[in-house]
Amino acid sequence: MEPCSRTTQEKGTPCDLQDSLFDDTVLRTMNTDKCKFAMKGIQYPTPGTSLFARPLRRSDYDKGFLQLLSQLTKVGDYSKEAFEAQFNSMQALPGMYYVVVIEDTSTATLVASATLLIEHKFIHGAVIRGRIEDVVVDSEYRSSSLGSFLLELLTCFSEEIGCYKITLDCKLKLVGFYEKFGYNNEGQCFLTKRFKD
Fold first, then answer.
1. Phi/psi at 2 (nearest 5 deg)?
2. Is the pLDDT of residue 81 over 70?
3. pTM score of the predicted model
4. Which three-class secondary structure state does DSSP give residue 116?
5. Distances (CA, A) of 96 to 12, 64, 92, 134
């Protein structure tokens, strides 16, 4: 069986999902009627010319995933083996980690990424909660609305899978951006205690 690629996925050809963090059938088959990007005629997995959205792959270490994340925060310098070990740990917990990336297929590099983390709760009748993390768009693509596309995709998906709510942390200057997508400042205070930089 061949590795998952844009060609195999578009043709519906079976491919080796072991390279993907999750099976993107869950995104391909979700109801996008409420998603703002769908109302603009944009569809998953192609948010633009030569742009392809998909789950993170084990092979994305070589496509600049860590360099992309470094535009958001400190990543650190670690090996491909360490990346693959972390990938395997996340992949071993199906239904908890949804890291979606956008690849520019003309350059074979990753240009945007966002993560949806699912938290299982005992409250509210044993529900699940979604949490958006690590939304980043390469500086050369920031006028392409890719962050909006990823945020809306993962927000719609979290509702589709039954999250009772979805939250995110952001800098104060970005509150207005997230409010455009229905996120509200509920006056809660999120505190942080760092053990490492």
1. -85, 160
2. yes
3. 0.88
4. strand
5. 25, 23, 9, 15
